[in-house]
Design goal:
With 426 residues, this protein is an alpha/beta fold. The protein contains 21 helices and eleven strands.
Length: 426
């Protein structure tokens, strides 16, 4: 598509902006779109041609053109938030043509099934970029997942520790427990659980870089006798465990394998076992589009990734396992704050990143990635939840009678009924 036609389409789309104001500076000409009274305002300045054509490629084109310095913005998060506010109209347009596009999209998806070998390749493309990269913006715990801010004044490290404690407390961990963790990260949760709660931990990752650093950290903590580190795909795990935890790993499973993942988790738990799953989610109404789309995130940042919806996870557990949902905690607001802190750290360490060999294009792509995710959580295009799932013989020691009277059937009654039942218990 030519620049002239692309420019006309983009200008038409911008003219329909709601919920914010976008100022576009192009060839010395300034044009204002949207609501001038809105608190959400962003100014885009074009450095060279190609912006309009790239924008029509969606998030991938927007990210690549930003990385290539085609355009600058005074507030990238605000810009993406405005785009998110206006996405429902674009979603309706996309849905109108889904019937025509679906066969093509379905054909494309065949080649990106997350088989064990492909999963290792996908994970390596993100997590094996180098531990030094992640240390630029994470706190000393090296937790690369949503933190939990008990107060607005909490530091990132304090919030990460609070999240670790929240998870362990929900699992009611104790010295008699053997905890399985699917998705080691850099070992923060395994070390915290073993040191603070006295349990045994078996943890697995398929990232070579993460395994190397996690092993070193476990040794430094003197916990080799309590923590077993594996480099194994979740599908190859064996044994029975009292508790199971998986923190923001399910996004890498792929929609074709969600049933397999939950079935395996259920199989690995004792009959009275308990599981905590923390998941980045997409709105139920957008899930089909997420399965079909090739976006900036699932091609450039997390290859092969797919965000599950709350409904599809509830359906998988109800239809394919004997797990029951006994707790749900929405922590979405904490993720936007986490990402704000990560991005601030990342942008404040440009020289260190350059010294490590990460060039300007890479740094700008990651700047956009962190801004993109922050905006998505702030506008709730995506969410973050902690699900507590129990095997049939599990009983809450604090309220066994009340929990025994709760029936959660998200398939028959819908996921909101399950959420309402859990909230009534709480």
């Amino acid at each position: 598509m030519g620049d002239r036609i692309s420019r006309r389409i983009v200008r038409w789309l911008l003219s329909r902006t709601r919920g914010g104001q976008i100022t576009l500076i192009e060839d010395g000409e300034t044009t204002i779109y949207g609501d001038p009274e809105s608190k959400l305002q962003a100014t885009i300045e074009l450095n060279r041609s190609g912006f309009h054509r790239q924008l029509l490629r969606g998030s991938t084109g927007l990210a690549e053109s930003y990385a290539d310095r085609v355009w600058e913005c005074d507030d990238t998060v605000a810009l993406i938030r405005i785009a998110a506010i206006n996405m429902p109209a674009l979603d309706r347009l996309r849905d109108r043509f889904r019937g025509l596009l679906f066969p093509i999209q379905r054909f494309k998806r065949i080649g990106v099934r997350n088989t064990p070998n492909r999963s290792r390749s996908h994970i390596a493309r993100h997590y094996d970029l180098g531990n030094d990269l992640f240390s630029l913006f994470l706190d000393s715990t090296m937790m690369y997942s949503c933190a939990y801010f008990e107060t607005p004044q909490a530091t990132l490290e304090e919030a990460s520790i609070a999240k670790l404690r929240l998870v362990c407390d929900k699992l009611d961990l104790g010295p008699e427990d053997h905890l399985l963790e699917i998705g080691t990260g850099w070992g923060a949760l395994a070390i915290f659980a073993a040191r603070e709660y006295g349990c045994r931990v078996t943890t697995t990752t398929i990232s070579a870089e993460q395994l190397e650093l996690a092993s070193a950290r476990v040794s430094l903590a003197g916990l080799e006798d309590r923590i077993t580190l594996l480099e194994r795909d979740y599908r190859d795990l064996e044994g029975r465990f009292d508790k199971l935890v998986s923190i923001e790993m399910i996004e890498a499973v792929g929609w074709q394998y969600l049933d397999t993942f939950f079935e395996k988790c259920s199989e690995l738990l004792e009959p009275d076992g308990l599981m905590l799953l923390q998941a980045i989610t997409i709105d139920d109404r957008a899930y089909e589009g997420e399965k079909e789309s090739k976006s900036f995130i699932n091609t450039e940042i997390f290859p092969g990734g797919c965000l599950p919806s709350l409904e599809v996870m509830a359906r998988c557990t109800a239809q394919r396992t004997d797990l029951s949902m006994v707790g749900l905690h929405d922590i979405t607001a904490h993720y936007s704050e986490t990402l704000l802190r990560w991005r601030k750290n990342f942008l404040g360490r440009t020289e260190q990143a350059e010294g490590l060999g990460y060039d300007e294009r890479f740094r700008r792509m990651w700047d956009f990635y962190l801004a993109y995710c922050e905006a998505g959580f702030r506008e709730r295009r995506i969410g973050d939840v902690q699900l507590l799932l129990a095997k049939p013989l599990w009983r809450d020691p604090l309220a066994p009678a009340e929990l025994a009277s709760v029936s959660l059937d998200p398939v028959a009654d819908g996921p909101q009924a399950a959420v309402d039942a859990v909230e009534n218990v709480a």
